[in-house]
Fold these 4 entries.
Entry 1:
Amino acid sequence: MNNKIMIVVFTLLLAACGGSSSSSSNSGGNPDPGNGGDPGGPGTVDDRVSLQVLSNRPDLVSAGDVLIEVVAEDAAAVDELVLLRNNTDVTQLLQADPDNPLRLLGVVDGLSVGENTLSTNIGNSLTVVNHPSGGPVFTGPHIQPWKCQDGAVDENCNQPVEYRWLYKSSNSLQGGLQPYDMDNPPDDVAMTTTDSGETVPFIVRQEIGYQARDQYTIFTLQKVGEDWTPVQPQSQWNRRLLVTHGGNCRGDHDTSSARTDDYAGTIPGNPLIEQSYITALGLGWSVLSTAQLNLGHNCNLSYQAESLLMAKERFIEQYGELRYTVGTGCSGGAITQNMIANAYPGLYQGLLTTCTYPDVMSTATQFADYHILLKYFDFNVDTTEPNTPEDLIAHLENVAGAQIARDGTPFTVTQQNAIYGHLNGIVNASLADSALFAEAVDPASNCGGVSAEERFDQDTNPGGVRCDVLTFMQNMIGERERFPAEDPRDRWSQIEKDLGYAFSGFPLGNEGVQYGLTALQQGIISPAQFLALNTNIGGVDPSLNVTEERLKPDYPALPNAYRTGIMNTIVNMDTVPIINMTGPDPGAAHDSVHGYWVRWRLEREFGHRDNFVHWGGLTPLVGDLNYMNQSLVAMASWLDAIEADTSDTPLAQKIIANKPADVQDQCNGIPGEMCPEELMMVFGTPRTVAGADKYGDQVQCELRPFSRNDDYGLGNAVWQESDWQALEETFATGVCDWTKRPLEWQRTVTWLKYQDAQGDVITGGEQMTPADFPAGWASPAFAKTWEPGWQQP
């Protein structure tokens, strides 16, 4: 064979195999320069099939498998198709879509950790980056130490998947789901009619497994004895997914169980009202939950988003492509939804929030003020076991006696409540502090997986494991920066200096906050009380010890709070519909104003809140116990309408244009308008009493010079020269300028990763490469939800 013929033959062989001219997408469709460019224009021999990943972004795949799609241009291409995984023929894994024989799907397993190549002989190739089932995918080095569950087979807490069968009883007195015995089927199985009109026995299969070193669970309404594959799911499934969450805010160092209850343990549900996840199953939805989506177990936004990402991938690979995903939850469950929707848009297509907070950090700011004020007012209650009835009684019994501040200044209960900004301020503050803030932020508090001997103690074990949530979030906020010793900005405590390393940064600050200013202007407190309060209130150190100095935020923690999304700027939340449910605030640390913070921030950033529907009612905290189920149906109708809009209209506009007429604000079931704020008991916070704006995101204010010309109640009070001088000394660095954005405010950056190519932490995160919307996550109408939020370098 002469040289010219050999060259022609070699060229034809390269074309048939894809060769080095095939396209490689390392992050959702952008050609990888290291693997060549376009394999050829339409109609060429190596462009007769297209290959894409359905279950996740190709660069974020985990657990060694992935659902892919191959679409051929004709039947001949199907016959000739060869699919290769790292040059191994895996064509047998593909199945034809029963509705489209030119579309083939399959779960490709056996992926190695790291880069893998999926290729075809007559189409494009993909680079798929696979991560361990124990993670991390994008969160950075694992939090240590970590205690796995009994039954784990390795240090990453992996364990074989377990399946259980459950059913709903036709006996209305049997609430919830009961164990279903396959060998001895019960005779009281209820029937259910799905939203597509199919009537089936109410039998549910539960999958329990472990990913990211923690538990996940999946519930599916299932026909016993009938196959279910991701290519051909059972007919009763409507391809909708409901994700449940958990409340509170903690940083455990061990595995836990996924939660499914409506109110996440925050408040008891009504046993006569069906849990919304059971209602969803009966309508044909699937339900997913992970332990790390329980904020009371894992108060780290990046780990929550990674857990949801991995669990959704697992779901799609086992059960099939999704139309959309909806979150639901109360308290910490609302925090998780709001933060993920803003920082990792696209993981949810709809939010159902109840007893709402917008995020971790604005809540922590309010509760930090509570903590500091409680210490000033000398309101001390043992918080070692804050959730016992005895503690709550102690709180209430001490209210009447908590009238003398630690500097000896008397304050009545009414005056204290006015400074807190709440009708029930003392009780609200003490519950928030003892049950939420102090336990979450105290490094010496309990946390799962860490023994008393291992835990931090500032006297006996200063180098021990710190159980506070700020340490748990260190990949996001960073350590307290150390400056040269001669620099007055050196913030290290003596413990840190002795240990030789810094603790996690404290993003919060109260510098310049004029506590009780509105109460002074209204004549509720006197100039002497205002002066004593602001002169002596001080702050706290990283171990929550009271300090004489005001609390100044650490860097880079303060800007990182906004950047990472733990302080929710809302700037990326116009691409998700929200139904928020609110009831009157009884002073149980779940102020109804927190839900309004979400609404008001949307209005500030977008000029409207048309993607936010507010349901109010008279049941404390939640509005109405039926709202959880009703909002599920309402959200489905809203998302169905968006799904049907296949135009090129941006998603944010589709959400507004396709909102059903009957999905609107309501008060006690009466549609058309929100409940009056007075009825919902919308109160303020210590910062709004100090003059702050209503948005609740002033983690630390910008400062301006103190001025005697400001309103200090001169109409009702006489200030002495010594008083003015004391105030000027107290606010020597300035007072809050509430007309400006908070100090270091910046837009939340979407889709941050916290590890580099070597697996080392990237403090504060680095934005991932833009990628196509994973086709299996949701219907095409919801695609590219995070694209507007990409930040350019």
Entry 2:
Amino acid sequence: MPLPFRSSYLTLSILAAFAGTATNAQVSFAQSTVADPNLTAAEPTSDKKGDTTTKQDSSNAAQGRAKKAEPAKSDSIQKVVIDGGRTDDDARRQSTAAKLIFGREELDRNGDTNLGEVLKRLPGVTIGGKPGRGGDIRMRGMGNGYTQILINGERAPRGFSMDSLSPDQVERIEVIRGAVAEYSTQAIAGTINIVLREDYKQKNIELKTSLSAEQNRLSPNVSLSIPGEIGSLSYALNATVYQNRQRDESTTNSVETAADGTTNLLQNETDETRRHTTGVFLTPRLSYKFENGDTLMFQPFITHSESASNGVSLVDQIYRAPSALEPVAYAVANNSGTADTTFFRSFGNWQHKFDDNAKLAVRFGGGYGKINNASVSNEFDTNGTPVAVVTVNSSIVDKTLNNGGKYTRPIGEGQTFAAGWELELGKRDETSTSLSNGKPQFQDSGDDLTASTRRFAMFVQDEADITPQFSAYAGLRWEGIKTTSTLAGMDVGNTSSVWSPIAHAVWRLPGDSKDQVRVSYATTYRAPSLNDLIAIPSISNLNSPTRPDRIGNPLLKPELSKGIDIAFEHYLSRAGLMSANFFIRDIGNLMRRTTQLVNEPTGPRWVSSPTNIGSATTKGIELEAKFQLQEFFPTGPAIDFRSNYSRFWSNVEDIQGGNNRIDQQPPYTANAGIDYRIKGIPLTLGGNLNITPGYFTQSTDTQLNMTGLKRQIDLYGLWKLNPDLQLRIAANNFRANNYVSSSDVSLGGVNRLDYVTNKTYTTFSIRLEMKI
């Protein structure tokens, strides 16, 4: 084993033992915070946890590390360098834990109106669903639930979609590949932290207006940011108002065969839906500095949206044998629905500095979420005779309270110790009514589901610059979750807890280069979602093996993972870097949904429920390169290159077959993009190609799923009319290829293949950005 790796391995072993004594290392906030270049030297900024530091502290920490790495000089004249703030790459390099930071440049580049479009271009990040519509956010190709999503360092509200969050409300995105003790370790794949706008010293009012068009359907968006200061009170008022008009169309071709190979069913179904959504985001931020140096920050996050939809489903049963499992379908169904969603989340932070440079930061906040959905489906047979009227009404109310704190104390030079706690209390009230011709579709229709959750955690961590070239971090976290629920007079409970030792180390190669090697180890987990533990049944109108009802399982256990990351990073003299990261995860108590035929009071029905099936292993390599062409050709054109490629492998031990991969994990994902600043005119042209290949997944021993190729091209042009006014034109999903998927189920003596084709569309947008 090469010396650097032996050294890193030895240090990690020592740190792991040290963590057993409840001492642990933190990612230094002074190193992890991206300073706003508009801030003065003593102006406070906010890190991802709501804790505050100063730009001066951050600069001193970076300068202190640099001084230790450089030999003493005998020059009698000191050179004073005034730095307006570190770049995203500087913050990434100085962080001991593997953290990728993407600021306003990345958020603004393509003029995106939803955050999912930004995230899909980041290294190792994929988005579920068809292009242009977004879906669940994934790291390292791992499916929903493996990636932890945070807003300002706290878990996002249940039911909140990141695709609905406007990039204009975001200050930066932090992609954390390894766990850190101060965050929940429900992050087997990693953590994505969305930091909301925090422009205390923004000098001008910013107004951004955009108009998007998809199939000639116009969607306006207006964003306004107003900064200000009144004595010791600083504030930034941010708001976005938007409308979306969308149309979706899909076709499902189904074939059902019996065990002897004879055909039971040939069926085609076409679904078309039109949707109109109006919404508003409000993210004001207030900060007050007391005379004794204490700071108090408060930032509420408010979003409200209303949508209405209508559509039609056409079912053509070309052939149906009497033995077919698929029920006799309607020929035409006219559908309409409404949705009303409100989320409120508050983030508060009080910070006190002690005389010995120690700090105590106390966080507090709460949340409220309400989702109301209503739909009506009028079904008719081939003769136009009414078959059924299906009405579904649901209401979900979520309430949360949270409190946390962190005590940070420097120990000598270049070492920081921290300890803290987190407490989150949540309560959900849910009611769902599903009627067919006025009769309940399931036994508990109309009953109230009440569920409560309690999450408590304690952590310690310690970060140290052991030598000028070597920094290390050790952390230990305990986290426990208790869930209780009541449905139809029955009480159900689930309790779990996890210890998570964590260690990171960075070895900076000596000399003038900026090369460095990272090694990390962490124990992480994936907790069952509330809907997987206990939920009101989700009823399928066309109940079949591939369209089953869905229920929960209160006996689920959390998935446990142990993982290692090894990375090499090479930073260029200009803005740019090249990196390679290898990871491996061993996962136990893997959760999967299985489908079986269940005798219900209304008759036999196919029902899907989650269960722990065994263990799995996943590994991969993540490559990234971004650079300016003039780094290598000084007289060349002003072109910036961005690219990343991630290759994944996985194996689920208790599922047979060659495609027994982690659910929804593609073989690879790739991005390539350029920005070309044309000489002589204030025009920048650019684009990005995003590719996720098609692949098969053996979900269970009886079900094989196929996910089709996703190839998305995004183009943009930016014209800077003057320093305070610029115009951006963009085309997202330029080729608009169809997105296909399939499900092949062999169950109950039959085989059922559903092949789904979804149309996708190009979205054109024009965006005017001005400073007033």
Entry 3:
Amino acid sequence: MDSPTTDTNSPSSQTANSAAMKPPAHNTNVPKGGFFGGLTNFILDAVRFEHRSSWKAGHLIGVAEGFESGRDHGLKLGRDEGRAEGRLEGKTEGLEEGFAEGHSLGLDEGKLIVELRPGVAEEPAAPGTKEPALFKDWKFAITPEMEAEIRRDVAHYLPGQPPSDDQWKMILSTTPTTSVVAGAGSGKSTTMVLRLIVLYHYLKIDRANLTVVTFTRESKLDFAKKVREVFDLWGYEVTEKQSLEIVRTFHSRILSFAKSIDGLNDVKAFEFLDKNLSEDEKDGSALKMKLGELQLDIMNKLYQDLYEGDATFRGLIGRLYQRSLLLDDLDKDDPQVLERKDWAWAMSKLDRSLNATLEDLWSAAGHWPIEGVVPSNKKIRLLGKDFQVNGYIPEYDTYVILGVDDSEPGDLRLDVEYGSYLRKHVRDKRTIFQAFCDRRIVYLSSYQQAAHSVDALRSRAIACPTFWYKVRGEIGSSYIMEAFYSNASFIENLGLDAVSAIKKMGLYPNDPDADFFHALGIYWAAFNQRLLDMSPPVMTFNSMFAMFSERGHKNFLAVPDSVLRPMTTLLIDEFQDVGANTISWVRATFREIERRGLSVNTFGAPAHASLMAVGDDWQSIYGWRGSSPRFLMDFSKEFRSPAHTQVFMQENHRSHQWVVDAAESIVKKTPGFANKHGLAVNKTVTGNQVPVWVSESDDKHFAEMAEKHYEAGHSILVLYRKRDTKKEAEKTLARVIQRARDEKQSKKIKLLTYHSSKGLQADAVFLLGDCEVTNSSPSKNDFYSQACMGNSNDPCGYDTAQQQEALRTAYVAITRAVTYCYWYISWSEKVPASEKASRHIVANEPFWNVAGPRPESRSDGIKRKAPKVS
């Protein structure tokens, strides 16, 4: 019999299967279990006995109960599984139908959204670039509360020096760039130091980010001292070394740039070479550079090498040397000529004695006669008078006149009636020959060079010649190496490359200076290379400025942040004296600072790069070396900034009003700021207004006034235009000068050129000579044009700039005076000058006291009819 476990294989299983679609009916006749039934079933189960009827009954009951249980369980599982499958299928179909319907319905709305987006879809590309900037758009964080604190502190620490409103505007400026036009005596130095206090103490800018630059070592030391004094008032003990890390000259600052480059770490500045090579800076200024022994040794050695090794250079030098030996022509209207031509009759009477005296001197020294020169006293008629020469060179058809060698005593006199100093007679004669003699004349003034000079004229010179040369337009001659250096430096100060600029010159055929500039181009290219090849390497300052100018911007890639960072907060003093090369360096430096994103190290509010420039266009007097006031006047164009502050400091704390007005009446004839006028505020002198004294040269009056002021305990400043005037002034003031020495008061009397007096003052100032322009420089006009320094419509831009500078020089000289000013000039217009400061003196103005004949207004040369009388 089959076991219940296999009942699915029994015939009865089919019955159950056939009844699966309906529930089986319960059989009520199935015997109910009792004790005995249960016992019987237990026994039967134990012996595995199958009772057919019982099996059927159990089967029916199991099927019924299993059906219900299975149905419930199946429905539950089926419902869950169906729901999941249906949901998935429904979702898929719904998405397909919904997307189609939604796409169709929403297309128009979608199109509207797409069209409102700017532009069309872009293709990927590299980021764009922007114009390099110099400064960020930001402001110094000087709050009203901070400003009030600063004002209180200044009033406390400097009670006797309250800043003016204009000075406060400079001290509290918040813009990235600030230009300050500070007139004479305006107290700019103290104001600049207070600006430093604001930057350091209140804005908490790190001292390593602060730099003040000026031109001379003297002004640097003076300014650094003021920094120490003022910072001490605010409780900061600044050492001399620390103050000199803040206050620098332009030249020491650019030297640090050059030294930061690999291979130039120990580079030396050519201009500051000295026997003591550890010296960083010389006294004086690179504005007034005089070549020393070491510099000339280097230049002379290269000169010799080029002369021996370069045939073209040797030929050029030979022609220049020959030209230098011949007397330069002087215009008949030249001031030197006009001063002497009226005395030609007296000079001719003394000329025979002069020749004999000179020949005796040369013979006694063993240098006369000279081989190749035939002694001759041939007469040459000039201005209707007879003058004699000393010799003649037949093969060159050239006459010779002798001068006085430097080795001879300075007080030699011509021992005849009306005779004067020997050198004066020689100078007067030479001038007359230069202006009125049309023959070839050689002037020999040196025993040592005389024989070489004649050999050179006869084309027999073997050694490299040393000689003096005068470029047209220069005031005087200079040693050929110094002529090379000064002319190349002028070109480079204009921001030009010297070799390139010379090639671009436009000279007329047979221009006498063509050989000079050709030779200079050859020399200067070799010179800069020779310096770099030295060990350690040497560079001129102009080469350094050019190296880090805008055209050398790639060189900045090698400059470390540590060199740039001190320039981030920069103050420039005497800004009117900068040249184009300096401007280009400063601009390039700020552009690199901005490109790198260098911020200013500060312990306060964030700060970024800034520039403050302080100067006075009326005191720009170094145009002869390439400086120009245009950079101050056009500051906002030269240094473009998101925000700029311009300040005019017009209070004069030095002089009384009449000194200021007299000086301004002359300088206002130059182009410049229209809204400038100095206001005298020095209470110690405002009540003692003395007009500026003007008269013809008067040695007696000069000596009397100088002694009078010395007796009164006044400081005295004697200023002159020409260096040879100094000797004459010292003779005139010999007594008072000696007295000052004896009384240990020598510092009370100073004699200086007009240009050297900037920054100085004295109770009484004596001016010797006019401020005038009597020459024209074709070469400098050419370079000025190349550098776009002048007006584009002015072919003689440099000459025009010099005419304006003559008036500015007079302004500088007059404003040195605290109370008294004496000006000795010549009213004579026999001296042809394109500009003279004295022309602008209006005698009836209260601030002038014109002694003697008063100047008449200049005629314009136009003849006019007398007005009709009605």
Entry 4:
Amino acid sequence: MDIYSYHHFIFMRLLFPLIACLLLCLLPLSLSYNQLPLCHQEERVALMQFKDSFIIQNNSFYGEYPKVASWGIDGNNTHCCAWDGVECNQDTGHVIALNLSRSCLYGSITSNSSLFRLLHLQNLTLSYNDFNHSQIPSEIGNLSSLTHLDLFHSHFSGQIPSEIQYLSKLSYLRLSSSFDAYNDLYTKLSQTSLLQNLTNLKVLGFYGINISSTVLESLANLSSLQILVLTDCGLYGRFPTRIFQLPHLQGLSISNNEDLTGHLPEFHTNSPLEGLELDNTNFSGNLPASIGNLNSLTYFSIGNCNFSGTIPNSFSNLTQLTYLDLSQNSFNDLSWLTRASSNDILPQFEYLGLAHLKYLTKFPDILRNQSKLWWLDLEGSNLQGLIPKWMHNVSKESLQYFYLSNNFLTGFENSPAIIPWPNLVYFDLKNNTMHGSLPIPPPSLVAYFVCSNSFTGRISPFICNMSLPEVLDLSHNYLSGMIHPCIGNLSKSLSALVLRSNNFGHTIPKAWAKGCSINMIDLSENQLQGHLPRSLANCTELEYLHVGRNQFNDTDPFWLETLQQLKILILHSNGFHGAIRSPETNYTFPNLRIIDVSHNYFSGNLPAGYFAQWDAMKSVVAKNLKYLDDISSVDYSIIITIKGVELEYKKIQDGLTVIDFSCNRFEGDIPEILGNLEGLHALNLSNNAFTGHIPSSFANLTQLESLDLSQNKLFGQIPPELVQLNFLSKFNVSHNCLTGPIPQGQQFGTFPNTSFEDNRGLCGRPLSKICGDSDISTPPPSTFEENQGPKLFFEFRWKVVVMGCGCGFVFGVVIGHIGTTRKQDWLIKIFGKKQHQTRISRVNRRVNRRK
């Protein structure tokens, strides 16, 4: 059973009795076409008009198909009661149910929509469509017969109409925000009026709705309530304990309300609870021993809360429990986990989360008898020493996702040549002290994270037995030898190949497969030699290429211009040499945002034709940007050098734009056209042999925060227009032949003497020389040495680790955790919470809070 199926299994297990009852009430199960009631003409027309108001997107995603495509008024398809998704009353013929879930609808539902003419509707299900962030019309209140309203994940925004509270027959209500940039569905409905009117509710699901209030005690008066979901709703204050004890409550989810406090009550044996989800809240206190009375509990999630004390031994009574997440709490007694006897009867888990439990120093004995696990998370605890041999047989056939990162593990007991779980899909061992040879992944493995360990030796060619790998991250180890040529053949399925900071030598594999779909290649900080293989041009989806700090000896690499998706190109600190030719096409690097060819031996003039085509650097990108990252949870990263200070960006926002051509042998004029790159944040042309003037067009670079032109042969004046650069916080023109007054005002009042030193013709603040002094004369030749090559700035550096590029590229540095683990959260939790893609961002937030 895959993750998505598992989610629906749990959800339907909780809702099946209710849904079955609704269906039985709405329509007999066996009804032939000839027995169908007569379709009302006005309702058939209304349905057709409703269909025609949308575009059909024809997605084939998680079972989506356009149900309305079969609707028609011609031929034999005129009977609307037989249309897909439509149900009619057997006696009256009126349309009473419209289920268009996952029907590929795109468009808006307006206030005059024909939908609101279907006045006999009892069931309206429009979940998993795209209503283009339109507002839910207040006319929804006209459908007074509704008992079932499901608008989950339907891309509505704005205010939820107050008229919903008057649908007094509702027993099922599910609404959600879009879980994207338009996540702004909110309500001004008071809980009091909602609860006073909707007294028949059995299922109430609000997901990502901005409620921003406390939870009323009167919610506990809804005695018929079976499922209550209030996730990510901005709730705060103390959660009423009586709600846990509602007589028919089967499922409760209040996760992702970080300011919501509370504690668990004593539970009675007659409680029908099957699912309880409190993760990412501020619940605290001890887990009551009476939790063992919840005989029907299958799902219990309290990850990232503040529970403490003991994990009760009564957990052993929860024989139906298949999903348990205790991660990131403050338990100081883990004996139930670590002292389990082989004779104990324990729950058979499918999902077990024990991450970031600081007193967990060894592999818990509770795992010894687990045979059904497909997800096991032991990340960020204090596991030490070897992975015991008995672990090799834990859920040997079923385990698919295994997280062991950020521990103190040193290796495998009786080190296996092959990872011992043959069906493993995702294996995360990063940030440990694992040593010895790299274990060979099973063919099933999709993502292999072993970065930041101490693995040694060569990569076995059997690593290429993986059938459909997506991520291979072996960075920051001591691996050596050559990168096996078969790696190039994996590029048809790989999205990220990260071999940074090892001891790999020889050349890059020369054969990269046609149809290569890789997004990210990072081979930096190794001892690779030779040329960049021209077959990399087959990787047309490549966004990030980093081969810095190797020993490549190659000429002009700009044949890479054929890679239209390339955003980041890092070639610094190699032996690239020669002149850069002019572009041969009119569409060169259109998406390039960051290029660093510093510390090489490039020479000749900068070809202005390239800068004319770098479209992504010409636009000023709006705020609230996303980070650039690979779809497979590998962060893009770069190191930017500013005045000898290395800023290492472990996360890069989409709007960051940088050009670094420093420490080469470029000469001639600096092209004026550089001033067209108005989105540029940093420009470094230092340590070259540029002559001529500083282009006045640089005044157009209104987003520029760092400009380094030092160690060249520039002459003339500093353009006074540069005072317009309000974001400029780093400026260096030292060691040139500049003359005249230093511009005054704005940011120029903040730059130190060192920004202007060794320009004997310059005068004015911050220099001591006053303009008009008689000793201003032709400056001596620059101290720049043409043959200095890339070695100059390697002598002394600091290193600063930063994340992102916010409002200030230099002063707005945010120092943060640089080893963020972002799991692919394909686990779809209980209660129909979110679509597959949105769960990835949710786990990201949880993991970030852990650190």
